[in-house]
Write a structure and sequence with these properties.
heterodimer, A: about 140 residues, alpha+beta, five-stranded antiparallel sheet, globular, B: about 120 residues, alpha/beta, 5 strands, about 15% strand
Chain lengths: ~140, ~120
Amino acid sequence: MMKTQSCVEVKNEWGIVAARQAGRSLSKEIGFGSVDQARITTAISELSRNIYLYAKRGEICLGAVERPTKMGMQKGIQIIARDHGPGIPDIRQVMTDGFTTSGGMGAGLPGVKRLMDEFLIDSETGEGTTITTTKWLR
Amino acid sequence: MRVPILKLHQYLLISVQVELDDQTALQFQEDLLSKIHVEGSLGVVIDLTSVDMIDSFIAKVLGDVVDMSNLMGAKVVLTGIQPAVAITLIDMGIKLDNVPTALDLEQGLGKLQQELEE
């Protein structure tokens, strides 16, 4: 269940910085430690750079989430990266370490998946891409 | 925004204190190489104590600037990488192979001195 949500528009390099600053402050607010704050901020940076690089524009939405567990309610942060860009033709390919079309390291999406707990790509060629990823507070 | 580069004898010292957006990172790469060229510097310490996040792009820019400086004949040491940043980089699968590092500025300068004496 998403409690609060705020979105940052990404259409230039400043949008990348704004998105990760928003992520850092929300993850701090939720109660994540410094290592998880760095993981979450880095994940947001990778996702927003992909938007800027491949779709030119889109948005990063951040929200505090909760789920019931045996130990009570568990808090977490959910990141939704949404764009109406070209889409990802082969998702398995982009999830391979070292695969890149931009001359980068090819660490972006597989890296984000490892930094976070849940990771879902919904992409349609010509329609756009939505990536939803969550990190739970331990 | 620009990252200031200080000259100390034959060395250049950089403490990255600004939020590194892509443009600032690339500008820094260019500024550092031209400063090495102008000053004839033998060694460079880039201190990352205040940097709380390094993503794959910034990691690539840093790795590249080390290689580029080496090509020109200057040795670069990265110092002060925070625990959270080191953990995140390894989680991401980013290995800065062949990049000399040290705990802090003092040890970084020591490392340069050692290498230049060899």
